[in-house]
Write a structure and sequence with these properties.
Length: 331
Amino acid sequence: MNLFEPLKSKGEDKKNDNENVVAEHVKVLIIGSGPAGYTAAIYAARANLNPVLYEGLQPGGQLTTTTEVDNFPGYPEGVTGPAMMEDLKKQAERFGSQIRFGMATSADLSQKPYKVTIDGEKTISADALIIATGATAKYLGLESEEKYKGQGVSACATCDGFFYKGQSVAVVGGGDTACEEATYLSGICKKVYMIVRKPYLRASKAMQDRVDSNENIEVLYEHTTKEIVGDMSGVNGVVLTNSKNEEVKIDVTGFFVAIGHKPNSDIFKDYLDLDETGYIKTIPGTPKTNIEGVFACGDVQDKHYRQAVTAAGTGCMAALDAERYLGTRVF
């Protein structure tokens, strides 16, 4: 689900009258929560920029759908995703950040101050804008997939692979991401099945060679996922359909979906430079976009790492650059 989907189609001339009326002006507006947004709020608040952050429909972002997080620094015993996001939120509020529930539904970055409309009703203008809207993992759309999310179904092998150490798992997808996930899991798990709908891999030749040479990976070509099965303890198998329309069941405890992510950047596409898949382009090594005073951080601009700690790092960078930008401007 795209948490920041615009309400109006491109080319629709008539705008909501409320969008033309600025209800509030702020120094720094942060759109999106999660590690990037909350970290940006912490740094901006400590710089006395009085940031206002809108969380979106899923406060805390993708990590709120994750059970255990073991790889974020500072939590030696691990922490649940929702608990960690609540900690970050409280820390941001401690320094004076205004955290609000609401979804950004449209934006106007054609001139300063920049304008963002919340829930199609309230328009806020800002001297600096930090975009931390994240990306949404693509899933197959199965009812059983939804049922076992966080109980064996995951969209991030790097995040959750450790929990399946020594076990058998499945990865669905045939592109570079799927091959990377399978290769990573092969160093942890007893057996990795790759479920590939086509009779070939779409991945680069280098990634294909890496998979083919890995004895711990078995590629099931021309197979599609029919159902994920399990019990109260979580996933224990996957029912597949092969090219002959025969059902095949494999015994796995983990099911990793690697069919891509969709960055939540739609409302900014008329103003910001995006790559071919919709990720916001930033100046290398910075969170700066092609528009002065507009910064992007977290997964909406990162299709390579997609980790909580890297998202938090770019949130810090965005706030620091926003502070420097505001310090050199006269408004």
